[in-house]
Structure prediction request, 537 residues.
Amino acid sequence: MQFPETTSVLVVGAGPVGLTLSVLLSGHGVPHLLVEAHPGTSRHPKARGVSARSMEVFRRCGLEEEIRRAGLPASQVFFYRGRDLVDPDFVRTGLAGGPAESAERTPSPGLICSQDALEAVLLRRARRLAPGSVRFATRLLSFTQRDGHVHALLEDRDSGERRTVRADRLVGCDGASSTVREAAGIAMTGPTGLGHYLSVRFEAPLGEVVADRASASYFLTEPGRGGFLAVDNDRQWIYQYPYDPEREDAAALSADHRALARLVRDAAGLPELAVTVQDTMTWRMDARLADTYRRERVLLAGDAAHVVPPTGGHGMNTGIGDADNLAWKLAAVTAGTAGEALLDTYEAERRPVARQVVDISLANSRARAGYRIDDELLLTAAYRSTAVLTDPADPALPPLDPGLSGLEHPDGTPGTRLPHLRLAGPPGAVSTLDLVGPGFTLLTAAGDTAWRRQAATAAAAGLPVTVHALPAPDRSGAAGLPPTGAVLVRPDGHIAWRARQAPAEDGRLLAVLRRVLSAPDTGTSGTSGRPSPDGPS
Prediction:
């Protein structure tokens, strides 16, 4: 296998986060190489909950419908609690922020899609967009940072061939035991060993058993019984068995398929159930956060940066949010339209979100009476960094606000996600979110020409912005858009800046873009390079 000698970005780890980053980088035209030590994508379902915010990212990538086809139908996204699978006194609850609530908040509600199926969809798109950019059975052995580059030693595990690849940036998406993080000397802090689980993938005819209680997850209320996860709610299942590493040998148990089948039958409450064990894996519940997300030209994303308890379903989704935040910034720095400091905003924006996700998930893991599984929590993410221009009048928002989850609040505060509002047009766009990307987007009032002149000035300076005028029926309260003002939306769908009135001078939008991008002022705007005194408000 031939390795390229150079690339702009080397991504290590082809799980959901690394594959999403590859798709997004290709969308921004960034040359990259994605390597994965394993011979292929995951054979185990692992993470399954794909949040509304992640689905919005995949919608922007043109993957939403394909992922929905690979997942469970919406009618089965429930959460079961009972002594076993045949308990007549079971309780079944829906997802917080279900379809009725989601319709007002997002065009892309979350779903259940097993990680192995999700990775297959992402891999097909990644390879289609950048043939030859994804290499499996390829291991990162070591790397050094010198001469303004990362020099990474890679090994083809099949042939034993080794080659050094020079990259401008290295992104570690290689999981909780990240080789990249360790080699970069980045520590993680937080509790470990909160639980130990043996995950058993098996086949059994359970479809008729659960027909009146079909759910995504089946939590068993008897202590020590664990629970079942539906792969297809018919014959394909996962049993999560909580084991005690001081009393049980997980490796020996994994090899004893008869014993595993007995565990499954006992937990299901079906002593005659025909069980075929297909695969197993062990995992440990931790709640950890990297001390930093960046060390010079090396960055971390996903589980390499944060290990989130699965109680809530936010771990993989937080990583997908990392990729969405990082991709456009890497693209801007690679293209030379942004300064190096833009990459510092990645940690400034994403680490506080991960901190709160870890804390919420840890609290869920300790809740005795169950916990609220919230599809819309990540829609409330609010960023604060130099890539967001705020006004003193703007409210101080937490990184995440569970109190807002499920509520409609299109206030357009810089740093928050652009609110979803249904559109009557243009053709092909049914939501304000469909107007976003791949570059910056400026939303204005209908018929406004002053802002289009501002966009033309920015484009002439090499910073193009797509302008969309929202007609009055569509923009009622839309993103807090004033009659003569505008809202500047970043490629990741978060609001970078809001102007409450028409520009007073030429080049104002260009000056704002340069500040957001940490780009040097070349003096071509005809201004001081800063917004006017009424500023970023």
